[in-house]
Design brief:
27% of the residues are buried. The model is unreliable at 17-33 (pLDDT under 50). Helices cover 30% and strands 14% of the residues. Strands 1-2 form a two-stranded antiparallel ribbon. The protein has a two-stranded antiparallel ribbon with strand order 3-4. A hairpin with a 2-residue loop joins β3 (120-124) and β4 (127-131). The protein is flat and about 45 Å long. It has 191 residues and is of the alpha+beta class. The chain has five helices and six strands, in the order αββααββααββ.
Length: 191
């Protein structure tokens, strides 16, 4: 099954294997967030201290995305200045994903990136989205799932021919006809 064809519920189920345990993610409300390929934290370092994080590091869902921290102290420091710190996370995500952004056209308008001046970079969840111009944001925000599915399809098409792995990164089993294509950030992962 192709990732773009799955329902959000099916995506959440499939990602349970790759999504970190969310028990630590929102201790204030004891709510377990649904992590998807769009909002799982993909940065390697804590946005407060800059120290490395892992799937067992403390996490918090802020708005529509997961943020991982090196320690619980950084969770509190992030929360006390969340607006500024979220903008800093956006900047890091853009820097991380811009050079490997796999399509050269606007996911909304279809125009070549750069054809209308400098491309506009936004972060949706924890994922870079690039527009040809500022006017595309309103259309994207009106139906993000539509455009994310189109972007996922483009990424899968672009990266499938050279996909390097023959085994699932989670189970270690051979990838076969039943493999599921998942896009994390700007990278195809087959499960």
């Amino acid at each position: 099954a192709k990732w773009v064809a799955l329902s959000d519920t099916d995506k959440a189920t499939k990602l349970a294997a790759v999504s970190p345990d969310s028990d630590k993610s929102d201790t204030a409300t004891k709510k377990t967030p649904v992590l998807t390929a769009y909002n799982v934290f993909l940065l390697e370092n804590c946005p407060v201290s800059g120290r490395p994080v892992s799937s067992s590091s403390p996490a918090k869902v802020v708005g529509d995305r997961q943020i991982r921290f090196c320690c619980n102290g950084c969770v509190g420091r992030f929360t006390s200045d969340a607006d500024v710190r979220q903008k800093a996370v956006d900047t890091l995500i853009i820097e991380q994903q811009r050079d490997t952004y796999p399509v050269q056209t606007c996911v909304v308008g279809g125009g070549k990136l750069g054809s209308m001046g400098k491309p506009v970079d936004i972060v949706w969840g924890n994922r870079l989205i690039r527009y040809c111009c500022g006017g595309c944001d309103r259309r994207f925000q009106a139906d993000p799932q539509k455009y994310l599915k189109q972007l996922d399809a483009a990424i899968i098409t672009a990266q499938s021919p050279d996909y390097p792995m023959t085994t699932c990164p989670i189970s270690g089993g051979e990838l076969g006809a039943g493999a599921v294509d998942v896009v994390l950030g700007d990278t195809l992962v087959r499960l």
